[in-house]
């Protein structure tokens, strides 16, 4: 059992056989090739969670949803997760919308054996997110040959309410260029200051040009760089094990060469080397954690915000909120504004659906707003003369 991964401390360490999932009614038949060795639900879910060990925020979010479902299935429904049906999923969605008071008791601790798993009823958006995470879990277990099928595949698509969702957590081009200018103005009077400047300069540009997630950037090494027909590409393995290649421009490769030369490395990466793309502060070749990459970016944005605060509080506030994922959104938004075909942006971000990528396309809405408001201004009439 993978108890340390799940931290399942709200029931006995060993579930009774009837609830463990060893003989769940939705278990795949013996004739199906198994890709995992897990023989019970807790172990199987633990392996799914292990796929996200390098992304702490995702891991914690996914673990919470897995714990909630396991508790509900075994304590409320009286069956193992591997026996859940479509009817159970419908009932669980209703449970998320109105969990009983005993699951939301503010007197319960946030951690430990008898902790609180709900603050209160989940809003529609939170329920969709929870069910989406669990659908991913079940799809994984089906592909692994552990389950015969997923009761989530029958879920109907609900029409999205309200305006079309767009991404707003990005920096517009003028503000992004201002960020780079401020960073370039940092003091470099000592060796340590120069090291911090060169690393921050490279990390910001690297994440912006590649649209990588923090975990992907932390895992990248020089062996992931490939020169094909005179053009550079970066190979990466991202969320859910999705592989992809990202085109790299000459400007980024010049920045990479500068960063490598600063630390005494050859300008061009070796195709069979394993030196990390992002080095330690003094050039140590040990790879950084995703959290360390995140902190480098947050620290850079914090310092930039302190500079901008003296002139423009709005800009400073926006930059202070920015993070590694903002750089990913910024990259996608700027690519869309530059006229990059949306299916190319989809490949660069490794989205499974082009609908996900479309949330970065702001140009059409901006043009509609500009043309509409310009027309209104040009044809405005005094309030008393409104026809």
TrEMBL record:
Chain ranges of the Core-binding (CB) domain: 43-142
Single GO cellular component term: cytoplasm
SUPFAM superfamilies reported for this sequence: DNA breaking-rejoining enzymes (SSF56349)
Highest taxon, organism lineage: Bacteria
Keywords linked to the UniProt accession: Cell cycle, Cell division, Chromosome partition, Cytoplasm, DNA integration, DNA recombination, DNA-binding
Pfam families assigned to the protein according to its UniProt record, in alphabetical order: Phage_integrase
DNA-binding as UniProt keyword: yes
Cellular compartments annotated: Cytoplasm
GO molecular function: DNA binding
Domain annotation Tyr recombinase: ranges: 166-374
GO biological process: cell division; chromosome segregation; DNA integration; DNA recombination
Residue segments, region Disordered: 366-387
Name assigned to this protein: Site-specific recombinase XerD
